[in-house]
User: Fold these one by one.
Assistant:
Number 1:
Amino acid sequence: MSKVVVFGIGPIAEVVDFYLKKDSEHEVAAFTVDGEYMKESFFHGTPVLAFEDIRENFPPEKYKMFVPIGYKSMNKIREEKYLEAKKMGYSFIRYISSRASYYGSQVGENCFILENNVIQPYSVIGNNTILWSGNHLGHHSIIGKNCFVASHVVISGNVRIGDNSFLGVNATIRDNVKIGSYNLIGAGAVILKDTADFDVFAAKGATQKIDRKSTELSHI
């Protein structure tokens, strides 16, 4: 069992607290945020301390860190806090749901992988990456570091996802495709060929309302 300090007191930190308590051997010892964002001294009955003071009160020799911040600014905020904690001497846990089907080769530190993810053999997930629930990661595929994969994303076999990328709900990546770093792939987007760094993709939304009667079969 590891005693863990969780960065954040928002919705994702609340979700992390739930999963670590219900489905891990880790114990959440404290929460931490930057001092300027301190709003309360306890969160779900657990102490909250300023990040600037955390090392003095919960030293890295006795506690591990978990930094499950969301995808804001293309995951840069999570990356920065993760690296800050690393410089402070902390090691990190990783969480893989017991309800995920995991057959991969490697998962990095500070990763958060929720239920119903299917992670096929020979796949690799880099440090500081989040996979929300219900995704498919194909065989021999690699997700880089500091990425966020939303829900019901299909990443086919032998795909490469660059660092700091975001993949929205129901996005689909064809096999043998290389996604550049800092890519924003919106909900429902379908990627069929390689992309460059900093590319942005959005699925075309419905632009015309269809008369329901025109779509119904006539009875002859």
Number 2:
Amino acid sequence: MRRAALSPEELDQRRRLDARYDWACAPVMLEIERDVCGCDYGGTSWTTREEADRMAEELRLAPGRRLLDLGAGSGWPGLYLAKSTGCEVVLLDLPLNGLKAARDRARADGLAGRSQGMVADAAALPFRESAFDAVSHSDLLCCLVQKRAVLAACRRVIRQQGLMVFTVITVAPGLSPADHHRAVASGPEFVESDSDYRSLLAQTGWKLIAAEDRTARLATSYRRQLEADLARQDDLAALLGAEALAERIDTWRVRLDAVEKGLLRRERFVAA
């Protein structure tokens, strides 16, 4: 199944993501990532090490099981899950630079034989039916337009007893029009959804096993991110440039404020 052509906004987002991986694995960025999430892969999600360990248990990952990690970027948490559980992993994303970094990390961690990187669209997965035992994606759907198509594609490629775990940043329900607009402007690029995720899962053939509000943890991550950036301003300015650094810090402040005011939240779902 081919998806519609990318919008100009989506194309611009992809270019920016690809450029981001040029500096994502710089020493200062990895230091910050360790402070915020407890990992050092050059990742772009807010998945913590604790969340990744829970994901491994909930997905029943083990040697011989096959995991599909969507929006895998530079390998977090997919490569970590493969290393810690012995499973095989396919890392799928569109930005090529991220997957190149993941390839290098897989080689360094001795995972080249159990990991594969693939440039492909999550809304039109290039795999046969029932190809995977498990699917994971971390804060991906809030960065994509075709949320329903991605969930439907995941349902098609997972085995009958397979499981999916994912996190996503969402607009809080019940907001006034003004607060809804502010939430959309403050969140990830495509945070707005035409339906809540429980409904989207049901519409695409998934059975909801568990749902958890992770908003408090997101607020903690934003605070740590802001503190870590401010503590390393000189190194970050040398890497990114003063203007880009100022925009980055402002983004964390705006998003933290939106979370603290109840405009944005983060949810975690387990589905079968």
